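Batch manifest, entry 17 of 40.
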Amino acid sequence: MSLNDPQWGNRGGSDEPGGPRRPNDGPPDLEELWRDFNRRLNGLFGKKGGGGGNGGGDGPRLPNIDFNPRFLGGGIGLLLGLIALVWLASGFYIVDASQRGIVLQFGSFKEATEPGLRWRLPYPIQSHELVNLTGVRTIEIGYRGSERNKVLKEALMLTDDENIVNIQFAVQYILKDPVEYLFNNRHTDEAVMGAAESAVREIVGKSRMDFVLYEGREQIATQAAKLMQDILDRYQSGILISKVTMQNAQPPEQVQAAFDDAVKAGQDRERQKNEGQAYANDVIPKAKGTAARLMEEANGYKQRVIATAEGDASRFKQVVAEYAKAPEVTRQRMYLDTMQQIFANTSKVMVDAKGQGNLLYLPLDKLMQATAAAAPSVAAESQAAPVARPAAPVSSEVPPQLESAPRVGGGSYSSNARDGSLRSRDREGR
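Output type: structure tokens
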């Protein structure tokens, strides 16, 4: 069965075109649908009649449209109205909470809008730009992305002591005024990079190499942030510097080995200084203590000598007074005291008898040794028996060797076994 068969798609249906169809009808007839479309199109454009056509009713027919001026003018107006509506709707835009809208009228600044749904005159009268105020922006000086990707043109800087250092740092900033950011400078981000590099070079040029590499990195970052903010405020860039971070600071690679040796030498110097300071802290207090002790001993000796001298002077005055009363007795007493002091420090005494040629020998050294040998036994007995005992009386008997010795000055000699001294007693003094 071909498509041109009049029974195709119309089996069991009504014989009249457009007639009612029974519920058991098959698929819709394409020709009937086409004819129905033509009728509706002709009715829309004001042409009466439904069939019209090109001869037969079986084949497809194209619509015969009659254009009149009234319909043409109404369609163009409708189309222009639709275009105007779309053009006006293009002026709506949305500003997020973190953004600000900048409206431009014929390319110049018109106004700044707050977050929300906004409308402006459509292009080309007005346009808008959205600027993010809360987003943190970052620029890198001396490197890109990673510290290994060095940009030596930006990183190499000269210090105050004429040394070259390699400095890499990052600058983070936000926008505080979108109007200044967009209109006062042509390339604001490049201006921030230039201001950052200029500020750091100025600070490094006034500092020494050791200060830049070690203890002064935080101070340099703080000073650089302040100086950059001053420069950008003079430019009226609308930028607020939030943080400057020193990523790396080291000498150039060509002199890294020599710099490491210099650092080790400096560390050795500091270590030796610390050792010397520790030694000084140990020796100086001892020396000060010794000096203080010597001073105290000297003061004590001074006081002792003064007191002895004063005592000797006082005793001499008393002796003078007694000598004036009894010169002979005082002279004899002084002689005996002097001889006692002399014999107390000697171990052998030789006595010459006057006129008889007898020489008396006193073995005081033997007596002193016997006394020293007897002292340990006495000490042992005192430790074994701590009960105090009365000391044995020292014998005052004159040895038989001294019985025949002549008496000097009318006196008599006696030997003391404990100290080995020779004593004489004057009978007249008794």
